[in-house]
Protein: Putative S-layer protein
Organism: Allocoleopsis franciscana PCC 7113
Amino acid sequence: MSTLFWKILRLSPVLLGASLFFCGSAYAQENASEQTVGNSTEVTVAPSTELPQTLVIASRTIAPQNISEPTVASGTDQAALPESTVEVSTQLPEITQTQPSISPVTPTDPSVNFNRADSTLAQQVPASDKTTAESAEVLQQIQQYQENDAGSPAEALDQVTNVTQLSDVRPTDWAYEALRSLVERYGCIAGYPDGTFRGNRAMTRYEFAAGLNACLQQIERIIGGGGNEFATKADLETLQRLVDEFRTELTALGGRVDQLEGRVAFLEDHQFSTTTKLRGEAIFAISDLFGGQDRAGNDYARDETVFQDRVRLSFDTSFTGKDLLRTRLQAGNFNDFGPLTSSPGPGVGITREGRLGFAADTGNSVEIDRLFYRFPLGNFGQAYLLASGVPFEDIVDVVNPGLDSSGTGALSRFGRFSPIYRMGGQGTGAAITLGGGKRPLRFDAVYSTNEGSNPDEGAGLFDGNYSALAQLTFKPFDAFKIAATYVNSYTGSGIGLNHSTGSLASNVRVNGSPVVGNSYGLEASFAFSPQLILSGWGAYTAARVIGVGDADVWTYGGTLSINDFGKKGSSLGFVVGMEPKLTGTSSAVLASGIGGLQAGRRSDRDTSLHLEGFYKFRLSPNILITPGVIWLTAPGHDSRNDDIFIGTLRTTFTF
């Protein structure tokens, strides 16, 4: 005990010295803080070396009842702030409070997380209790632009989607075009509930700063979020000038000017072009086919597991902000499994059912896969000029939401949409779309050919294979839509209906004879909720083999999509239906000439069901992993063929 007491006594001078040192440091720091917020009328914030200037905020106490609404500055005059003023200082005062440097906001994932709320309102300037109260009053005054003069919320401004909604804005007004552009391109203009804009009313600089901040967010969304909208170089230059002019008010809103400038610089640096957006998609897929034997006793197991890929780069260009020129490059090395081809031979050429919806084979050589130009027809619709490789699915609504994309939708061609949209020759031509959008009715008309560039006789735009579509879509409310489709097609000798799905016989291909098809379809989709969507279709084709006879082909299908299953952004999907089936022919002569039809029969023997299940797992905003399986119960609509199973693991990268 005496030994312990002696050791403590020896250490007491050391403990006493340390205590005096820390107490002195704490006292010095507290004294410095008191000097900073004492009787001085200035609180100085010294930025880091990254900022070119020092912001000095001069604060003074003002009672709330003395706050008057600031007026808009005219010319280059700056309106004084009612609570505080911001001025540029070239020297640092003796007593400063230093704030850490904040670099410009640079999201790691601009395509999804670019428009973040926390990047809009930046960090507040450190201040005393007095300046904090004054800042609250400043923000309170900014909110007045959403209320009437009496402060009633009954006059809150409503978002405007079309300039014609503003009853007091006329085409003869000097600012009409500017308002129209801000409303229709950026959606950052609001009007009053009575349908007026009140353009002659005096506006505070705070109101303008709030509107500028809203437009800045909208341009961020346009560049980072996708779609067919474009922010031009002139837009970004104008935005930068406005940020410079209204830096004082934006600071009072709570946003640091250096962060806003950094965000504008980020937009300029990361925009691919002032007129063009670059989009990319890459697919890696591991697939295999399983099953027993075909009706001739040939094993399906001859096929091996494969690792295949497909890459697409789309260049979306706009010259007016409303039109679209799309140029898409593609490379891929997908090959169909033997039983799913049309080539005859042991164990191959059984059916065209179960084909993968993302398959494309160019030998991994790059080629132009899509080329078209779209432009608006006033407010009534849009027109298309189809230069190369454009199918119906790129123009019309195929009424299978969430599953129609080849890269992120259903796994099979059949599961993406009705085979009626694949009839005939497609690729070059013209199209028109009327209505749509918020209107309940939409009408589509398309004329297309896959021989538009061939000048030979029997080819060209109007003398070769073609397909003409007319579709009327009715959408009475957001959760439900239904469409009626008609397709007239013509294909030359040895091609058939060219829908490339279903049984071989359903293609009605007769060597040496052209085929005319008249196809009728009905498609519908109903969303019980955003997480549960049920869709389906049915189609009938009356095919006429010129000079030989007629044939009938039927198909139907249904899909179920369960969104946000297991994880937000992921979904579980199912497909069930009958791929195109030949149900009858007008003569035995015709039946004997149809490729894939058994001798002595005038229709497919049985009915095969297409059953498909998959899970789209959202690994990240840009990576989607989709495992799934396709089951054909009687391949080729022939129960003598053993069932076929196709398993695949699709990984889709988007950028």
The two ends are 74 Å apart (CA to CA). The chain is about 20% helix and 35% strand. The domain at 276-322+356-654 is CATH 2.40.160.10 (Porin). The chain has two domains: 107-270, 276-322+356-654.
